[in-house]
């Protein structure tokens, strides 16, 4: 099939390119070309900013379009206008953030989601052109705008539109570094750095999906044709099991020092950013890492063994230890928790 991946030099977009090219599809990538990701041989690179002009798509036709970086309904409409009428499948990368609140455990595709508002659309319109490719630029409107993108795609294409509400993505190339921080810190848990503070209790639920597995399911949706909305994330695990698996992959022997939410907050440490994989304790985030992806698993979503994800992530990060991660505990914060 003739495939276009919009944002195909990014983290998940790049994984989709690799998955589709590996099984022989004809691939084109549309991106601004700012990540520096080299494209495999035989893949056409179309340099363009989707928020500027898509004239470079004139006269081209595609069977499948994978859209990994739509943050406003206008972006969806402009892209669909540019690719024309012959499209067989449009796969939109949405987000579980579309649910808005996670007070319920096991949210599934039948649960209600908040509707986008005029204020959300105004937020999208006000984002500076240079920032429109960044999810963070849309602030608290991000989830509702993802819902607006889903609605725009369904309005235009009906059942030819598939929206994947992706959970926390991990793997080599992850720019958020939330799992990567733990991999790096535990790899360094040797000698005087063996003691590692962790957010208790040890059975704290966590959930994520390897970008390669999410990409594989995106390809499954294009090949098999299921439209509609799909939660895409992995099975729920205990944080202690994940951290122990990291230690096994790294060959280190950390001593985890478990601290409860109260101790972490009293130490001035922010969940999720300072303490990755610790969802904020407010009710609306309580079950953020406990979403139900059973529908997608029944359709063919498969998640590789955790050891595979961690091994590749460890190899990748060991080759870039000079790069700061931008998340995680500082040495001073660790000392406060370990003291």
UniProtKB/TrEMBL annotation:
InterPro entries: Epimerase_deHydtase, NAD(P)-bd_dom_sf, NAD(P)-dependent_oxidoreduct. GO terms for cellular component: cytoplasm. Coiled coil: none annotated. Pfam families: Epimerase. GO terms for molecular function: aldehyde dehydrogenase (NAD+) activity. Residues 4-232 form the NAD-dependent epimerase/dehydratase domain. PANTHER family: NAD(P)-BINDING DOMAIN-CONTAINING PROTEIN-RELATED (PTHR48079:SF6), PROTEIN YEEZ (PTHR48079). This is 2'-hydroxyisoflavone reductase. It comes from Cribrihabitans marinus.
